[in-house]
Each structure stands twice: as C-alpha cells, then as structure tokens.
Amino acid sequence: MQYYDLKLRVSKEIDKDNLYHLLPNWINEIRESIALKYPLRFLYTSRAMNLVASTFDYTFDTGTTSRYGGFHDSIVYYNGTSYIPLSYAELVNFNILFPSTATGEPSSYTTKGSTFTVDKIPSSVTSKTFTAKYYMLPDKLVNEYDEAYIDKKYYEVIVDLVCLKAMAFVKDYSPDFMNFRARAIDYLFDLYSQESIVPVS
Prior knowledge:
The protein is of the alpha+beta class. The chain is 37% helix and 23% strand. It contains 6 helices and 10 strands, in the order ααβββββαβββββααα. The strands form 3 sheets. Strands 1-10-3-4 form a 4-stranded antiparallel sheet. A hairpin with a 2-residue loop joins strand 7 and strand 8. The longest helix has 21 residues. The protein is elongated and about 65 Å long.
C-alpha cells in the first residue's frame, strides 16, 4: 500500500480529521518499531567499509538508507586476498579478552549500540575492508507513492497500529480501540512468524 493510501486508510478508519497532520510521523514510527522488535529477513543487508589506520570502532550505517536496526549477523574482514569471518564476543568478554588495542590482523569483534569494535587493526590498511551484515530499518516514506515490501505485504498491521496509536492519543478506548488492538496482534504474529529469523512463540 502506497504512502498516500496508508494515510487515507488510517484517516477513514479513525474518522478524526484533526489528527491527519500527525499520521505521516506515526506511520514511519510504527514501521520502524516493527523492525526494531525482530531481525526481519526482508531487511537484511550488507555494507562494505574501508579500514582506517589505528581505528578500531566502525559505525553500522546510520544514514538515510540502510539504517542499522539493532540486529547484526556478522562482520567479515577482507585482507586483500581472502574473506575472513570475525568471531563475535559479548562486550564484557571482549573487554576481558582484549583489554587494549593492538596492531595485527583482526579476529574478533563486539557491538556497542550502532557501532562495532575490532580487536586489532593491521599497520597497513590499503585495500582492506570490513563487510557488516545486518538488519536495517525500512526506508522512511516521504513521497505519496513511496512503498516498500513491508507496506505491500503487511499494510494491515501498519494501519491497525497507527489507528491504535491515534485512538490512544485522544484517549478513545471504545470497542473500536479493542478491535484495532486484537487485529494488530494477529497481524504482527503473522508478520513475525513469516519474516523473523528468530522463532516467535
């Protein structure tokens, strides 16, 4: 469902014209909140970045596209001839294993928010890269005819969650509120059970 149609559908469902100006932000917020709950396979991506001398921290993409959604898959190091998957360590363990930075071939990494940190950086970084494989947030809807996979296949959950947000905003807890809530739960379960790489109970 295209951006224009999403706004129109929500507007018709809640019948509250005074909230129309809030719908664009709410639609994008709901789409992102869905992606932040689970790693969704249709949002899987990768980004290659050049190594920087004496730099151990690298940022997952936080730009306007391919924005990091909080779930990563792996970091692969390219040393100029071979691709080498790095081993992941939880932050506490990483700090114990690698209490200080070092020069050499990286072998391990950890994550902190939207960045990852490696244990070593080679003295020469020419033609060497990291490839971060991770789950991104959906691109923001801006233009009226914008539409992503989540909007095509799972527009019902977006519509119902935005309706729920709108009704809670005006403190309208009528039977319609409960109907939107029940439908949204069903649609969310359908989305996560089909698209999440993490099993959903």
